[in-house]
Every structure is written in structure tokens, then in C-alpha cells.
Design goal:
single chain, 121 residues, mainly alpha, 3 helices
Amino acid sequence: MSYLNDPRVLFAAERTLLAWNRTSIAVMGFGFVIERFGLFMQLIAARVPEKVERGPSFWIGLVFILLGSIIALASAVQYEETLNKLGPEEIPDGYRLHMPTALNVTVAVAGAALLVYLFVS
């Protein structure tokens, strides 16, 4: 339990969570770009295969998307652990504590859905 009795501790933890959220979105976006780069290179090479080949860029991109989802989930867990260590004096009355966690979990689920979509299509 924290003994600072200062609500700024909560807001600092929330800012950190949201920074990790932005990082996870950026990593997933980078993975998507890498995954689509292989398709772009096939089109540039002027060869249109009957079936799109899954080269190294496909697998590397999927790993980055998976990594982004894991980052979003792990940061949500870490934030919840931090919330459990805060005292009641550090939480403003009526403040919705779990909205940032819900946002990160939603981003993680969206990343997993993107991963499944790219793998299946």
C-alpha cells in the first residue's frame, strides 16, 4: 500500500498505462505495415501469383502484431496491480478507475482479431 496520500500517484500510473497503450498501437501498426510490405513487393515485381505467398514479412508482421497485443494486456495487468496498492486517499471520489484498463484490453482484443484476420485471409 502506498502512503503518499496524493492523487497524483494515480494519475501518473494512468498516464503510464496510456503511454504503453500508444506504444502497443504503434507496434501493431508497424507489424501491419511489415505484413503488407510483402504483398506490395509481389505487386511491384509484376508477378501476380494465383495465391498470395506468405513470405518472411508476413510472419514478422504477425509477430509484431502479437507483441503489440501482449504489451497492451501486460500494461493493463500492471496498472491494475498498481491500483490495488493505492490507498483510498489517493483515489478521487467518483473517479472511474477501470476505464483505461478497458481501453487497453479492447486494444489487445482488436490486435488479436487483426492477427486472426490476417492469418485466415
